[in-house]
Amino acid sequence: MSQDPFESSFDEQQGPTHWPSLLPDEARPAWASLRDWVERLVDRFALETRVVPPCWYRHNTLVESLSALRDHERICFAPNASPSGAVDWFRRAARDRAPDERGMRTDPMLGQ
User: Fold this and answer.
1) Is 65 inside a domain boundary?
2) Does residue 36 contact residue 9 with C-beta atoms inside 8 Å?
3) pLDDT for 29-85, tens place per residue?
4) Is residue 5, in this structure, part of any structural domain at all?
5) Is 11 among the domain residues?
6) Which residue range is the domain that position 99 belongs to?
């Protein structure tokens, strides 16, 4: 039986990731999990490199923002989430990837 990619992207994580407090042995799996989630996010929403650049992991603002967005998705789709959780998630994800008239994102959630 294959594993659900949505479930595997959240691993055994119980809450948001506080990157500064992770020990080295905790950071390695946290990085791997976030990398996998970001790759799926980019594919899922066909995000351009100006939204999530290939070097996102080198920029603390992007790491923290993408991690928070993943946490937001997790809580929106939790078994005890509000019935409007999916809409809340989609609005956040769609807004964060939408450029303004100059082609720039106006929302700082993903580091712009």
Assistant:
1) yes
2) yes
3) 999 999 999 999 999 888 889 889 999 999 998 999 899 889 888 888 888 888 888
4) no
5) no
6) 26-110
